[in-house]
Structures are given as C-alpha cells and as structure tokens.
Design brief:
The structure holds 3 protein chains of 3 kinds.
Chain A (H helix, E strand, L loop, with lengths): L2 H24 L13 H28 L2 H33 L8 H22 L3 H32 L14 H44 L19
Chain B lengths: L5 H19 L1 H21 L3 H24 L8 H9 L4 H31 L9 H23 L6 H12 L1 H15 L5 H27 L3
Helix pairs in contact in B: 1-5, 2-3, 2-5, 3-5, 3-6, 3-8, 5-6, 5-9, 6-7, 6-8, 6-9, 8-9
Chain C lengths: L7 E10 L2 E11 L4 E5 L6 H8 L7 E6 L2 E2 L5 H5 L2 E4 L11 H12 L4 H9 L15 H15 L3 E5 L7 H16 L3 E6 L11 E6 L2 E7 L2
Helix pairs in contact in C: 3-4, 3-5, 4-5, 5-6
Classes of the chains: A mainly alpha, B mainly alpha, C alpha/beta.
Chain lengths: ~240, ~230, ~220
C-alpha cells in the first residue's frame, strides 16, 4: 500500500464517522430512554468490532501456525490491540448508558457486558504475553495458540453468563428487546459501517507500524551482533590496571 | 527397547511431579497456609457480622480456592528447566502426555488444597448446613480439574518467560471465570433446592473443552519452548 | 534405517536467533562409527550446532537429517529416542535422588528399572544412589548422565564440554561411552573449547568460528 492510500483510507474513515455522527444526531429520541439511547450508536458498533477484531486475531494466528509468514502474526497482534481498544470503548459507553437507564454503572445480570469484560482481560493478557517474549518466532507461535484458546473461550463465557442471567431475572428497568424504529436501525447500520472503516484504517496503520518495528529490530540486531562470536575477542589483559 | 505408551508416559510424569512436589512442599507448606490466612483476612475486611459471613462463606471458599489454587497449578516445581525439558523431549515424551500427567498431579494437589480449606471455612464462617451437600464433592473435583487444566495450559504458554509468575495468573483468572460461576451457582441452587444440572454441565463442558485444547496444542507449544 | 546411511547429514545449514545469524552454511556429515570433534571459541555456535543435531532446534535454512529423518518432521519423535545430549547443565530433578532420576528415565525409555541401579554402580555412584541430586556435586550429576547413556544406549551421542567437572577417574567414562556408541556403528560429536582431552577420542576435527565450520584435520 502506498503512502497516499493510507492517507486516503484515514480520510474515508474520518468522513464515515462524521456521516455516522450526523445520522445519530438526526435520529429521533427513544420513547423511554430519550437521548440516552444514542450512545448505542457508539456502544453497539464497538462491541461488534471487538468480536470481529478478536476473530481476526484468531484467524491470523491460525494462518501463522500453518504458513509461518510474519505478516499474519502482525495482523493477529494489531487486531488484538485494536480489539482491546474497541472493547474498552464498548464497556465504557455501556456503563455510561447504564447509569441513567439501569440506575447503576454495572449490571451483573447482563450477559453481554459480563462477557465483554472478561474478554477485555483475556486480551489484555494476550498483549502482556506478547510483550514478554523477545524471540519473534516463539512470540508468534505462543500468541497464536493463546489467540485460539481465548476465542474458543468466548462462547463458553457467554453461555455461562447467559445461563446465569436466565436463572436470575435481573431487576433491570429496560431491555432493548422491543422492535427497533427503522430510522434508528438505519443510523445504527451506518455507524456500524463507519466503525468498520475505522477498524480497517487502524489495522492498516498498525500493521504497517508492526512491520517497521520488525525491520528496525532486525537492523539493530544485525548491527549489534553481525555473527555469533564476532563481538567476542581475546581479553586484553595488558591494558587492565593492576588494582582491578 | 520399547518405550512406554501415552498413558504410561503420563503416569510417569504425574508420579515424578508428585514426588518432586512432596519433597519441595511448595503447595503443602506454602500455598495451603496462605489460602487459610486469606480466609481469615476476609472477615476482617468486610466485617464480622455472623449472618453475613455465613451467607458469603461458600463464595469466599470458592474465590480463595480459585485465586490461591492457581498458585498450586503453576507452582515452580511444575515448571521444567530447559535441560529437563530437553531430556524429556529426547526421551521421546509426547507433549500431550506431559500435559495430561502434569494436570493429573495438579488436580490431586488442588483437591488436597480444597479439602484443607473446607474445615477452615466451616470454622471461620459457620455457613450452616447446605441441603444435599454431598454434591459439593463433585463440584470440588470439577473445580480442581478445571483449574488444573487451565493452569497447566497457561503454564505451558508462559514456559521460560521472566514474567511467568505474574503473567500466568493474569491469563488464568479471566479464563477460569466459568469455573467460579458454575461452582458458586451450584451452591446457590442447592440452597434454594433448585436443579444443579445446568451448572454441573457447564463445569463438565469447561473441563472437557480445556482438556481437548490442551492436548491438541501441546505439541505446537512444545516446539516453541526451545 | 538403511545400512551405511549417515548418522547425521547437515547441508548448507544456517541458524538465526531472531535476526541474528549464529550458524552460516554449515555442511557436516557423520558416518556410522565416526567420532567428530568440534572446537571453537566461546559463543561460536557450538552448542547451537549440537542442538540441531539433537533435533531440538530447527535450522532457519538448509537441510538437516538425523538418523534418516528430517529434523522436526513427523519421524523425529522416533529418532529422538536414539539420541542423547549431555549439555552444560545436567537434566536432573534436584528433589529426586540419583536413583529416582535414573529410574524415571528408564521408565520413560521403556527399559527395565533394575538397569538403572546397575548403571549407577557402573559409573561408580552405587554408594550415593539415594542422595538427592541437588545435594550432589556437578561431577556426580555428570556421572548420572553417563549412567543414562549406558542405560538408553543411544545411536547418536552429543557431548557438550563432556570433560568439564569430571575427575580423572570419571574421565574414563567419556572414553567408555564414546567407544560404546562407536562400537555399535553410531555417531558421536564432542564439542569443546579446550580440545586437548577430547582429541585422542576423535576421528575428525572441525573448527567452528564465526558461525562457519572449517575442516581442519582429517585424522583418520
């Protein structure tokens, strides 16, 4: 990708978000929740993209395990980072919405929020693991495996919390189960599209950055060491002062 | 010369791990008292209101069993040094057999850990009689097995890393959430005399899923620990 | 395995750790009954080369075949059982006694456990077999490793600084182990930065420097 296409993609992302924001503002206030419902235009796309991003992390890892080409590891790592960002955004907007509507920042009986929070910590762990492994191949391999484990775990976590919720009907005021106003739905879809473009732009930049990081690491490593043993010479005892 | 099969290898690894742990005493003499102390600290933090403590007792037991049980699951003596790993590799040990053997040892140690914590919880929290309590024995086994599986798996992901001791708990804690939730809900369901089947199924599913993942990923993970 | 086929055959092997090259264009063929010595200064890649031969490390480029199978291919698991590597640090569990360590190895290798006790007698540790490994000296631990070699009888034996830490009597063990493998038409590689003690044992010596293997002397 050329420098211009990176910039073009970023510009498209900014425009898309602006359009999405416009539609969100123009949407009518919700019957019961009023303007508060509009936070959904950020919350729902963020949550969806978090799942998408972590799915891409799993696929990137799996392809890396098969092909061992560095690009797939960079895709997996970048997507996890972007995914953690969107997960945090989804959690934050969920809590901001929850306070006026549910009367509490955190609803223990909401399966989606609980699973999202767990997912957030799992992928924070994934990023921490990556930071802990200096060797690129070991890092790629182990994080690929963790990426797969983590994603397989998502449905189990979701299932367990759903089970938890259905057996303990929570004292929630409003559930968004009612049919959605078509105008509201259209604005939601447009925002979903806009956020997906933002994801694509983040990914393009992040993967490029990862490639540059790898190249820098390589240059430094080669400059430092050249070849095994070449930095080691015979001790030069003649120059050592007597009192050492 | 014929080398042992898969289960034979798993058995030998488990036997060796138990022997090593028995001599080192890391779980027995360090983690178990640590867990018991934690159970003492909680009432001091939340207040010594007796009905409240009776209410939260089983939950505290589970939280401590999970958080401190992790320390049992990835105790230092369950981690091989690079020469030990290489020796096992050259002896043709199947990494999956190693996973199974190590998980078996951890499950036994975790059960011992839980068994010690039970009377401590009863004495300190006096939770009262839970109807049909023998089911809780099954829960303890599933919790120990599940935590051993997740712990061993996370332990192999972090093998040889300098941050191992802090990173492994971060990986294990969120992943073992279904275990905690499932176990806690069995206690709740028993108290209300409701069906515990969904929760037992959840715990069993979790055990099975992690066991499958652990066996399947054992070999690719082993390749990376060099 | 085909009769007369090489024990190990490395062709144009290169290794990088991350992006740092450690070995470059290494060609090495070890024939049945051959004892190879590799000398080279600290950090020249000797241990890395041994780890490739032991199938513990995959070359970044080039081809490495050991006991008839490509390194880290499907067949490696079977080949590995016929390889033993004595590295810098002994592969022992400190909490176990010397005998327990060796019995564990015997069980995994599928040999009778009585042999473990006999092997310890042979290396002169019969009187110390119930001592814990972490209470034993480095030289004793090394002897346990040689007992392991007697027990598992590998077709390829890889010795990294084998003489280090061994007293004069124990050095006979190196010789015995090397000759045993050699006598069974196996292959031996000895690696050292001080070649004096190992030279009498070897057929061919190579010099490893700057990640490249130089054919120094053909002494056969």
């Amino acid at each position: 990708m050329s420098e211009r296409s990176y910039r073009a993609l970023s510009l498209v992302a900014v425009v898309a978000v602006a359009v999405g924001f416009g539609f969100a503002m123009a949407a009518p206030p919700e019957r019961i929740q009023g303007e508060f419902a509009k936070i959904m235009f950020v919350h729902v796309p963020s949550a969806w993209l978090a799942f998408l991003a972590f799915g891409v992390t799993m696929i990137g890892g799996a392809v890396w395990l098969m092909k061992k080409t560095p690009i797939w590891d960079r895709v997996a790592a970048s997507s996890a980072e972007v995914g953690v960002f969107f997960t945090a955004l989804a959690l934050l907007t969920g809590m901001i919405w929850g306070y006026p509507v549910w009367g509490t920042f955190w609803d223990w009986s909401d399966a989606r929020m609980m699973s999202t929070a767990i997912m957030f910590f799992v992928y924070v762990g994934y990023l921490a693991l990556r930071r802990s492994i200096p060797d690129p191949e070991t890092r790629a391999r182990r994080s690929a495996i963790l990426g797969i484990i983590a994603f397989v775990q998502v449905p189990i976590v979701y299932l367990s919390v759903t089970l938890f919720r259905t057996l303990h009907q929570g004292a929630t005021v409003v559930r968004a189960d009612a049919p959605i106003d078509p105008v509201f739905l259209r604005a939601l879809m447009i925002n979903l599209g806009a956020f997906t473009i933002v994801y694509a732009a983040f990914m393009a930049w992040r993967v490029r950055l990862a490639r540059l990081e790898d190249e820098l690491e390589e240059t430094e490593a080669v400059a430092d060491f050249d070849i095994a043993g070449s930095g080691i010479t015979a001790p030069n005892l003649g120059e050592v002062p007597g009192d050492v | 010369m014929k080398a042992g099969g898969f289960w034979q290898q798993a058995k030998e690894i488990a036997r060796k791990d138990l022997l090593v742990e028995g001599r080192a005493g890391e779980a027995l003499y360090i983690t178990i008292p640590f867990g018991a102390v934690a159970l003492m600290l909680i009432p001091l933090a939340i207040g010594t209101d007796r009905p409240l403590l009776a209410e939260v007792g089983p939950g505290m037991f589970l939280a401590v069993a999970l958080l401190f049980g992790m320390l049992v699951a990835f105790r230092q003596t369950a981690a091989d040094t690079p020469p030990q790993r290489e020796l096992l590799t050259l002896l043709g040990t199947d990494p999956a057999a190693k996973f199974v053997g190590r998980t078996a040892t951890s499950t036994l140690l975790l059960l011992a850990f839980e068994i010690v914590l039970v009377p401590v919880t009863i004495l300190l929290y006096n939770p009262g009689r839970i109807p049909n309590w023998p089911w809780l024995i099954l829960v303890m086994v599933l919790l120990a097995g599940g935590l051993a599986l997740v712990g061993t798996l996370a332990g192999s992901v972090t093998t040889g890393l300098r941050t191992r001791n802090t990173l492994t708990p971060l990986l294990v804690a969120p992943l073992s959430m279904p275990l905690l939730l499932g176990s806690a809900q069995v206690v709740e369901a028993l108290r209300r005399e409701e069906s515990i089947l969904p929760w037992i199924t959840l715990l069993a599913t979790m055990n099975l899923a992690v066991a499958v993942i652990g066996v399947v990923t054992a070999r690719p993970l082993e390749e990376s620990s060099r | 395995m085909i009769e007369g086929a090489p024990i190990a055959d490395l062709s144009r092997v290169g290794v990088r750790f991350g992006r740092m090259p450690v070995l470059r264009d290494v060609n090495l063929r070890i024939d049945p009954g051959e004892v190879v010595g590799i000398v080279g200064p600290n950090g020249s890649g000797k241990s890395t080369l041994l780890r490739i031969l032991a199938t513990l490390l995959k070359p970044s480029i080039g081809r490495a075949a050991v006991l008839g199978t490509d390194v880290l291919s499907e067949g490696t698991l079977a080949a590995r059982r016929q390889i033993d590597l004595l590295g810098h640090h002994p592969g022992l569990w400190g909490e176990l006694t010397l005998l327990e360590n060796l019995t564990f190895v015997a069980r995994l290798a599928g040999s009778p456990t009585e042999k473990a006790e006999r092997a310890l007698d042979l290396v002169g540790l019969g009187g110390a077999k119930h001592r814990r490994a972490d209470h034993s000296s480095h030289g004793m631990q090394r002897r346990v490793e040689f007992a392991r070699v007697l027990l598992t009888r590998p077709r390829m034996l890889l010795l990294d600084e084998a003489h280090a830490g061994l007293d004069k009597a124990a050095q006979a063990l190196v010789k015995a182990a090397v000759e045993d493998v050699q006598g069974r038409e196996g292959g031996v590689v000895l690696v050292s930065h001080e070649p004096d003690r190992m030279l009498p044992l070897v057929n061919t010596t190579y010099h490893l420097e700057g990640g490249t293997l130089h054919d120094r002397t053909g002494m056969t």
